[in-house]
Amino acid sequence: xxxxxxxxxxxxxxxxxxxxxxxxxxxxxxxxxxxxxxxxxxxxxxxxxxxxxxxxxxxxxxxxxxxxxxxxxxxxxxxxxxxxxxxxxxxxxxxxxxxxxxxxxx
Length: 106
Prior knowledge:
Blueprint: H1 2-19, E1 32-41, H2 45-54, E2 64-71, E3 82-86, E4 97-99, E5 102-103
């Protein structure tokens, strides 16, 4: 009996979490040079998971997404990962995700 209640409660919470509106970020021309650990499609499950963690909705977008990014502020900085130019990420995203990241060569 208890396990049935637990399952029903969990399903209700998942349904409520899915119904909570999130915001879709605007896609603008990339202006921020970033060093990202990886770049994936916005339709990938990894990008969707990270976006959900920071409260953004990637549905309807089909752009490259940078994961675990930090800004490159010094000319000649050796990134060691993927150097990209992205839409300037929002502070509240904590460097976890950046939108519309295009590879560049410094």
